[in-house]
Amino acid sequence: MVFMRFKKFEYQSHTADVEFLAYGKNFEKVIENSILAMANTIANIKRINRDVKAHKIKKVYRIKFAEKSDKDSYLDLLWYVLQDALSIADYRGLFIFKVSLIKVQKGKNRDSIRVELDAVKKQDKYSYIEVKGVSKYNMSLKFEGNIYKADIVIDV
Q: Is the pLDDT of residue 132 over 80?
């Protein structure tokens, strides 16, 4: 059996903001990689991961959300999780560096999601740029060639 590795995310050229494509073999993975792409725009997550392993500093924050099940709700759910992760991090003065858990539960009338994020207190040594929000304009989520692909623009 041959396993193929693919990119988690890649940045696209954009005139004013930051645009990225995030990939995943399932919906949970595309959410995780979207969060990581956004977090990597804000801070140096590789450096944070390295420091956390050395100093054992981490906090876990949870996002819970329930939404009516339909085709478009997954795009809304992706937007909500990204926006909520950004809001939590901003409000608490944190840099997200890892996604510990993503669990989507499909229900008859509602789907719910649980996301756990590892974060550290903001420090200048990790900082890149400030992100203001996640744009819904031209945001897309597609399933092509057995891979989910999200196209997201974040306002900086």
A: yes
